[in-house]
Write a structure and sequence with these properties.
alpha/beta; 9 helices; five-stranded parallel beta sheet; three-stranded antiparallel beta sheet; globular
Amino acid sequence: MKEVAPPAQHIVIAIDGPAGAGKSTIGKLLAAQLGALYIDTGAMYRTVALKGFRLGVIHPSDPPEPLAPEQEARLSEIAHSTAITLAGDPFHLQVFADNEDVSEDIRLPVVSRYASIVSAIAGVRSALVAQQRRMGAEGTVVMDGRDIGTHVFPDADVKFFLDASVETRTERRYAEQRARGVDCTREQTRLDVLERDRRDYNRAIAPLRRADDAIWLDTSSLSPEEVLQKMLAFIQERLSARPTAAPSTPPE
């Protein structure tokens, strides 16, 4: 793999795209290559959903049921009152909710099904976006999600929109679930992907869309390493094109 020196300046790299497009895998590879903080925003919304289940605010349902206003209000309170922290290197990222490691539990299928519903709640979004922006101010970061380049960091230094065919995304999600020991079928996984797309693209608040200045990449026929190399080349091109600040003149 081509070696790339970590950026000398503080930069924010935003990666958006639908479920199964490869955002998390590529985001981790990119953060590791750049020595950057990797922020998994989806894990943060999953954490709120998990706490909602544990506290009895929402209940397991397949397909997910629409939430009542009182449920949305309670989930918003949970998002505002829960300290969510991320730790570890990109490939061993740990997610903590009030100091409890919930890294495994937030990947349960029922949590996955409700994650996009929870992420569409205005109160939840405002609470977590505030946390994400604080994380982004700490240094060079790679952040992936659905609205990073359009809403969370509209002024991100470099923006990507990763996409892939429904068939490719279904196979990726199916393999991921089976690797975790989840009993599922390809057809159910395909329906879950399509339903997630419907909710993400049509939600009222910060829907999934490509930012005007985002670099679009179709990952359907590319390996993660090939996508990474393309992204690194774009990052170097964008950063080298930025004007260099003139050196300050020392006082006389």
